[in-house]
């Protein structure tokens, strides 16, 4: 099944009874504070333009109140936008009628929630089949398909337990199995792992990455954790006060933070796990020396390979094994430790 | 009052509408209502006829079946509802006590009445509760009506009920239902409104239709609250059958009424305790059943 990209265009959300009346004023430059003070309306999202890659993981990151959960709810229209478009496969989700929307939700999207939102009166397997059941798929078929996903997320043997009998991590596995059983193109994950313990969270991230390797769904993942964002995201958008302040790959954000706010965020990041070798390599001069390192390897792995081989120099090869650049341990270390503020980047660019 | 000499008459003595006007208004309302009832008497009778049949059928069934059959059925229901030996034993003991003091038949009549009333209250109450939970407007209209139904002295609405339906079991039944249905409606409404918003959002996100949402999520999760409503309805029906005996409902209520009229202290208490016994049986059984429904929500891990 080919997934499609999701295009969010000029999306505005103003909470309040007369939100629509203030869109033009916000477009003309009214701030969130002014809108709240003068008209008692809350600006949820402001001029959001994001193109979410087909078959990739799009991470929307922001702190609480940044509007990230509001944004994800526009994709399956649990929240109606005040203005703007959400395009999937050329169709504007925001203009669908009730029936089309229901069909869209049933067949194209599946969602995983922060607080799991499982049905407490249903067992694990009954929760997992919920999406198929309301589509009218026969029970035996539902159970057969659900069983596979339950095993896949590691819940074999717990099919007949109730959610309350499971730990948080296991409940979220049920949430994931429920979403996957739906076999939808779009997987929406609203702070799906935020309520989990750090170790379980990393574990669940691995589950998602492994699944994504073969499923290639269009995943929209909401988080407030930059490490999680960098680990999962093919593309990351950072939201603040309802505005996108930067979007790009994890490397883009770590290397070229758009402002002080993001700089502060990325300061604590383990850069060695984000930056790829090709980003800091020098053009090849002379013959390739040292160990070969494939394009896309992060600095930490490259450094480990070089240390194990007891060499200070490595050469970067592309997917076909052709040497494209060289790199030495000193460059790697300085790239891993130098925190670049966005001002310095700006100065360097001048 | 001395102060009145300084005030104009209008501010001192409340300016009531004069007696003749009120009498005229009262008369025309009463006459109008009677006329209305008289002209639709056949339609009304036809409408409530099924109730009468059902009630008579159940009453005959309860009264004419051998006591041992009824007791066995009750014990079975109580046991399967509560899965509790103590409640089951209590039921046997209290039914024996009722039989021994010669109130078996009256108790059966009351049981039939309460059964029918509860069924009707559930059939009427749950849909109204659902409507109320779905719309703020409906809630704002229905709530004051329920307030009136619950606070209006039951004797007062017995008057129009008797005017419309006459004396007998059906008007008694209707009076009991009016009295007993508000908790059913309110708790259905409350139960649905208390359903976790996140779970509802999940149901929406997977594309549930409104009916699927109601059937799969709202009703099952509201069920414990709805069970509490049913429990309240049963208790209120039992309390009301005594008042309903004033319009011709038989059973334990009529005995209590006679005891009041004749100052039969012992008879009054026997019948009163019989009502209490039935009430406790119903209450414990339905509560234990409601608790079992919630078993899945018991937190087992830490």
From TrEMBL, chain A:
Which interval of the chain is the signal sequence?
Answer: none
Q: Does the keyword Cell inner membrane apply?
A: yes
Among SMART domains, the record links this protein to:
AAA (SM00382)
Give every ABC transporter domain span.
Answer: 6-266
Q: Where in the cell is it found?
A: Cell inner membrane
GO CC terms, sorted: plasma membrane
What topology does it adopt in the membrane? Peripheral membrane protein
The molecular function GO annotations come to: ABC-type quaternary ammonium compound transporting activity; ATP binding; ATP hydrolysis activity
Quaternary structure and interacting proteins, as annotated: The complex is probably composed of two ATP-binding proteins, two transmembrane proteins and a solute-binding protein.
In Swiss-Prot or TrEMBL terms, this protein is called: Quaternary amine transport ATP-binding protein
Organism of origin is Rhizobium giardinii
């Amino acid at each position: 099944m080919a997934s499609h990209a999701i295009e969010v265009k000029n999306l505005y959300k103003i909470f309040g009874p007369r939100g629509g009346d203030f869109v033009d004023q916000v477009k003309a430059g009214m701030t969130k504070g002014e809108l709240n003070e003068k008209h008692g309306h809350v600006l949820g999202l402001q001029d959001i333009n994001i193109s979410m890659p087909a078959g990739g993981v799009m991470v929307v990151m922001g702190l609480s109140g940044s509007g990230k959960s509001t944004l994800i709810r526009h994709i399956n229209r649990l929240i109606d936008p005040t203005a703007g478009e959400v395009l999937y496969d050329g169709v504007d989700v925001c203009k669908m009628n009730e029936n089309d929307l229901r069909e869209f939700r049933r067949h194209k999207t599946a969602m995983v929630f922060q607080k799991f939102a499982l049905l407490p009166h249903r067992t694990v397997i009954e929760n997992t089949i919920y999406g198929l059941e309301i589509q009218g798929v026969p029970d035996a078929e539902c159970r057969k398909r659900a069983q596979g996903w339950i095993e896949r997320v590691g819940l074999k043997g717990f099919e007949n337990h109730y959610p309350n009998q499971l730990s948080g991590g296991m409940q979220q596995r049920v949430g994931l199995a429920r979403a996957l059983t739906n076999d939808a193109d779009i997987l929406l994950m609203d702070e799906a792992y935020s309520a989990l313990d750090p170790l379980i969270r990393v574990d669940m991230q691995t589950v998602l990455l492994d699944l994504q390797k073969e499923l290639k769904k269009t995943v929209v993942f909401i988080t407030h954790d930059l490490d999680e964002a960098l680990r999962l995201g093919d593309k990351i958008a950072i939201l603040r006060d309802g505005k996108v302040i930067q979007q790009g790959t994890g490397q883009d954000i770590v290397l070229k933070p758009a402002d002080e706010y993001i700089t502060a965020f990325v300061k604590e990041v383990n850069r060695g796990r984000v930056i790829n070798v090709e980003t800091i390599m020098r053009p090849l001069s002379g013959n390739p020396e040292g160990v070969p390192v494939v394009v896309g390897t992060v600095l930490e792995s490259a450094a480990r390979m070089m240390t194990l081989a007891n060499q200070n120099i490595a050469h970067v090869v592309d997917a076909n094994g052709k040497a494209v650049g060289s790199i030495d341990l000193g460059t790697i270390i300085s790239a891993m430790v130098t925190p670049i503020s966005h001002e310095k980047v700006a100065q360097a660019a001048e | 009052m001395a102060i009145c000499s300084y005030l104009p008459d209008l501010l001192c003595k409340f300016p009531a509408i004069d007696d003749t006007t009120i009498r005229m208004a009262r008369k025309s309302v009463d006459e109008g209502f009677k006329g209305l009832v008289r002209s639709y008497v056949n339609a009304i009778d036809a409408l409530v006829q099924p109730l009468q049949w059902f009630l008579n059928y159940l009453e005959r069934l309860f009264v004419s079946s051998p006591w041992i059959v009824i007791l066995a059925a009750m014990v079975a229901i109580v046991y399967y509802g509560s899965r509790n030996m103590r409640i089951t034993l209590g039921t046997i003991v209290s039914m024996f006590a009722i039989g021994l003091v010669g109130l078996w038949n009256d108790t059966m009549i009351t049981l039939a009445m309460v059964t029918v009333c509860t069924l009707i209250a559930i059939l009427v109450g749950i849909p109204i509760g659902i409507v109320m939970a779905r719309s703020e407007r409906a809630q704002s209209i229905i709530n004051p009506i329920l307030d009136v139904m619950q606070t209006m002295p039951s004797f007062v609405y017995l008057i129009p009920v008797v005017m419309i339906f006459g004396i007998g079991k059906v008007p008694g039944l209707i009076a009991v239902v009016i009295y007993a249905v508000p908790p059913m409606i309110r708790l259905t409404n409350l139960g649905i409104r208390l359903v976790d918003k996140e779970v509802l959002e999940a149901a929406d996100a997977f594309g549930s239709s409104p009916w699927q949402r109601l059937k799969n999520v709202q009703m099952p999760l509201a069920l414990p609250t709805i069970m509490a409503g049913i429990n309240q309805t049963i208790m209120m029906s039992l309390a009301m059958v005594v008042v309903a005996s004033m319009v011709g409902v038989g059973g334990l209520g009529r005995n209590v009424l006679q005891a009041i009229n004749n100052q039969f202290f012992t008879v009054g208490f026997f019948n009163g305790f019989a009502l209490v016994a039935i009430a406790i049986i119903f209450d414990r059984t339905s509560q234990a059943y409601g608790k079992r429904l919630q078993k899945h929500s018991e937190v087992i891990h830490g």
